[in-house]
Amino acid sequence: MTRTAILGMGHYVPSKVVTNDDLAKMFDTSDEWIQQRTGIKERRYIEKSGIGASDLALHATKMACENAGVEVLEIDAIIFATLSPDHNFPGSGCFLGDKLGLGGVPALDVRNQCSGFLYGLQIADAWVRCGMYKRVLLVGAEVHSTALDFSDEGRDVTVIFGDGAACAILGPTDDEDQGIIDVEVHADGSGAKELWLEAPASAYEPRLTHEMIDNKSVYPQMNGRHVFRWATAKMPEVSLSVLERNGVTVEDLDLVVPHQANKRINEFVSQKMSIPPEKVVHNIQKYGNTTAASIPLALSEAIQEGRAKKGDLVLMPAFGSGFTWGAALVRL
User: Whole-model pTM?
Assistant: First the structure.
């Protein structure tokens, strides 16, 4: 049976580096405080207004195509995972398709936040396996910096997020020792308001008011302790589910590439699953949480650095707003 292989990866981050010390000049925080709670040392922000998620994705796509040995015009479907689209509508996938010169190529936006890449991977896998498309571009891209609250009130959220993009070119393979083995995803809306952006919202009339701006409903809100509890429970649970269903043990894994939400969460999950630290990829210290981009960004870097190579068995777990969570098992 045809399997879906990752043919190539690419990533891109803006050139503007924002350190913890830079943030400490804007509100009450410190490098020590941020590192102790998140493991983050710095993150990237877009250099100027007018740069959207699709612009970052454009650079990442070109790198992925080069690494895959695929021409841009061979892409026959786009899946774009983001919680920070260029505009409310149309989707960023349409903007990216236009920038790539892919008129007529279908583009699907996925709004599953930190689990967006995994949801997109499951969709792409189904498309390729059934023969619908042969070259699927799966993107995760975010511009968080333009929607953060740079005040003492917003610091707990603001210190976490950064901008970036990464993507994979997916296509069919007959190689039984390569490809996507399994993807499992879940959602539970009972936790929706524990990590969300309330406004603007179509549920309100008008969707945006001065009051919403003044009371800071326009900034992301997070119940950090609640999110931590859910993440450290659900990520191991779904990871073990995927491993057990496919007859794989933790010892069989070559690499674990978790969503980069908080280094403390990933360390807790790794310890809970008895995964050796050397098998776990962390790059949150450089980029912060790039949401839908974080897993492909970490994997793309690991491949670029030679840490991940062809034939490796890789586990990719995630947890995020929604609540949504999942895990993928892939043979590179």
Answer: 0.97
pLDDT tens-digit series, residues 13-43:
999 999 999 999 999 999 999 999 999 999 9
Residue 244 confidence (pLDDT) above 90? yes
What is the distance between the alpha carbons of residues 119 and 117, in angstroms, rounded to a whole number? Answer: 6
Reduced to 3 states, what is the DSSP secondary structure of residue 273?
coil
Alpha helices per DSSP H over 69-209? 92-99, 116-129, 155-158
> Phi/psi at 285 (nearest 5 deg)?
-60, -25
pLDDT score of 119: 98
User: Choosing from 259, 262, 266, 283, which is the catalytic residue?
Assistant: 259
Structure tokens at 155: 């610091």
* Distance from C-alpha of 2 to C-alpha of 284, rounded to nearest angstrom: 35
* φ/ψ bin of 4: left (φ > 0), alpha (ψ from -120 to 50), beta (otherwise): beta
Residue 149 vs residue 176, higher pLDDT? 149
289 included as an active-site residue:
yes
CB 72 within 8 A of CB 135: no
Is the Cβ–Cβ distance between 269 and 232 less than 8 Å? yes
Q: Whole-number mean pLDDT of the chain?
A: 97
* Cβ contact 108:133 at 8 Å: no
Question: Please, are residues 235 and 170 in contact by the beta-carbon 8 Å criterion?
Answer: no
Q: Which of 114, 144, 167, 266 is catalytic?
A: 114
Between CA 160 and CA 261 the distance in angstroms is 8
Rounded average pLDDT over 46-74: 98
How many beta carbons lie within 10 A of that of residue 332, not counting itself? 20
pLDDT value at residue 1: 73
Active site residue 282: no
259 counts as catalytic: yes
Calculate the CA 247 to chain-centre distance.
27
